[in-house]
Amino acid sequence: MKPSTIIITAVAVLLLAGCASVPPPELVNARQSYEQAINSPAAQLVPAEVHKAKQALAIAEKSFKDDPKSYKTVDLSYIADRKAKMAVALGVTAAEQAKEENANKEYQSAQDQVMKNTKSDLATQTENAKTANENLAAQTQITNETKADLATQTQMTTAANTDLTKQTAITKSAKDDLAASERTVDQKNLQLAAETGARMDAENRAAKAQAALVKLAAVKEEARGLVITLSGSVLFASNKSSLLPAARERLSQVSDALMETKERKITIEGYTDSQGSDKTNMDLSQKRADAVRKYIISRGYSAALIEANGLGKDRPVADNASAEGRANNRRVEIIVDRGPVNK
Amino acid sequence: MKQFYYSITLVSVLAVLILAGCGSAPEVNKEASTSAIRAAEESGASKVPSASLYLQLAKEELEFAKALAANDEKEKAESMLLRAQADGELAVALSRSVKDKTEATDAVERVRQFQIDNQLPQERK
User: What dihedral angle (degrees, nearest 10) is formed by the CA atoms of A84, A86, A88, A94?
Assistant: First the structure.
């Protein structure tokens, strides 16, 4: 064999070999797509799809090896490329579905958390409401107790006011009584003053009368009162009981003096000497006492205050043995009480 | 006589079958490819940019396969139908991946908004 023939043959063989080793673009794309698939999440998420792509690529490679230029190699490579791309797409789908599922779980978890928080808040609010209700009940109880106390206080105040009113009425009554008592006391005082004045006036008049009587007759103070002694011879004629004219004048003056003390009781006692019978003397002395009483009454003295007694020869003031003594024993005594008659 | 009628009928049927087989293009199974294309269309692949290309290719390959079959190139036609099926299935997968991605994004956004609305702590990712 010639060298040129060998070279030509070698070049031809090389050319043929070179042409045979050049893969179609579809196969190149399939290889690249497969590489992307096994390096994508699809390898983990959809390994079955990646395996299908791998099988498709293997078939394409075998076809390329068996018949590089055939339409089958091109079509199988084309299909292997699409299988690898689909594996990637399904991987994306699985990832997105996982993402969505995770989001849904998270959403559910968030909803649960919100529900839990809501329940917790509701429980807290319920507890707070319960506490508020309890506080309100306590406040209501206190208010009711306060109202009851207030009612009691009001009742007590009313009772106190009633008592106060009564006390005021009692006090007013007491004041009125006191005022009345004071008025009574004043009246009493006035009356007492008047009586005192009257008494003093009476005493003055009595003193004045006594002074006047001293000039008219014998006057002396005794235990039974003021005793005015009038001589029988001055008043009456012998054995007579009618008053002499001179006696009337004398008795008139005595009566005027007695009128100064006309509220006092007067006792008129008639006396005789020891001559004659006792009966005669008693009758005469009584008549003479009556004559004097009658005359004094005629002068204005109260008849009720004048008593007349005939005592005869009793209580002689001198010796009946002598004429002078008997003349002194014939007498009329007018006894004026010390004080006014109590009415 | 009866056997004669049976023979006539059998010969007639066979003749019809032979004539029918000789008068039409070779049958290819387009079911898988057409199903894939229909599924892609139903999944909204025509509205998804990344999927619409493969849907279009699948349709063209189906038509090309029909032409090959009509040209009595059955094997090429079947091979082309496999390509059409592969493109149709890829269009479906891409369309669904985009749809799932959108739904996942919406779900994540819904979670985030819910957390904001309810003042919940958000996870850092």
Answer: -140
Considering CB atoms only, which of A75, A104, A110 is closest to B83? A75
| Contact residues, chain A, for B118 at CB < 8 Å | 110, 113-114, 117
pLDDT under 50: residue ranges of chain B: 1, 10-11, 13-23
CA A159 to chain CA centroid, Å, is: 10
Strands in A331-340's sheet, in edge-to-edge order, are A218-222, A225-231, A331-340, A264-271, A306-310
State residue A333 phi and psi, 5-degree precision.
Answer: -110, 130
Q: Give me the torsion for CA of A225, A229, A232, A234, rounded to 10°.
A: -140
Question: Which residues lie across from A236 on neighbouring strands?
Answer: A243
* CA atoms of A125 and B1, how far apart (whole Å): 104
> Chain A partners of B87 at a C-beta cutoff of 8 Å?
82
In whole angstroms, give the CA distance from residue A213 to residue A292.
16
Residue with tokens 């009128």: A259
CB contact (8 A) between residue B97 and residue A113: no
Residue among B97, B107, B118 minimizing CB distance to A103: B107
Q: What is the distance between the alpha carbons of residues A69 and B75, in angstroms, rounded to a whole number?
A: 16
ipTM: 0.77
pLDDT tens-digit map of A113-133: 888 888 988 899 999 999 999
C-alpha distances out from residue A201 to A37, A187, A208, A214, Å: 162, 20, 10, 19
Q: Is B118 on the interface with A (CB under 8 A)?
A: yes
Q: Indicate the residue type of A297.
A: I
pLDDT digits over A212-262, tens only? 777 777 888 888 888 988 887 778 877 888 888 888 888 888 888 888 776
Say whether A103 and B108 touch across the interface (CB within 8 A): yes
Alpha carbons A205 and A261: distance in angstroms, whole number:
6
C-alpha triplet A30, A31, A35: angle, nearest 5°: 115
Kindly tell me if the per-residue pLDDT of A266 is higher than 60: yes
pLDDT of residue B89: 95
Query: What are the φ/ψ torsions at residue B85 (nearest 5 degrees)?
Result: -60, -45
Q: Give yes or no for A103 touching B (CB within 8 A).
A: yes
* Number of Cβ within a 10 Å radius of residue B104: 21
